[in-house]
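Collaborator request, handled under Task 6.
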Amino acid sequence: MEKPDDDGGAVEDRGDGDERGQILGHGRLLTVASRPLKALAFDHAQIARGDGMRRLVLAAALIAAWAGVARADDAVVLGRPGLSNVFVWRDTDAYAEAMKLLKARVQEKHPELVMSLLSCIAKPGDHAVILDAGMFSHTVRVVDGAQAGCRGLVTVEDIDKLR
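Structure tokens returned to the collaborator:
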């Protein structure tokens, strides 16, 4: 059974005190998930006027603006104390392969095998923008220094601090 709600729409009343929105007949979507999400709730008249669409477009625009657009202010410093180089690997597969080669000590006789997996070697103090943050590694773009423009993967330990 439907009962009117505060904004002129209707909410299905199941008699159990739970007023979750339902997709009802005649093209009316009352609520996306539950009562507290009233901002995303519309009735048929609001949909016809376009009120709900304006709210959704505005919400989508705000989410896109906050989604982590890289700015110069988001630059991080590469390196950590005692490091002379920061290795920027081509990608996660190259990093994993390099770790296996290093564990097998291949670099002692054939360093070119490990070096071929690098995108570049940055210097500590160079700045980079994090393009994709992960738990153990980040994809970055180096934005200053001799390797500016280089893109690849660095370990979390190779990010010193925020600028």
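The cover message to the collaborator said: "The longest strand covers residues 127-133. The chain has two domains: 2-66, 72-162. Please let us know whether this matches your experimental observations."
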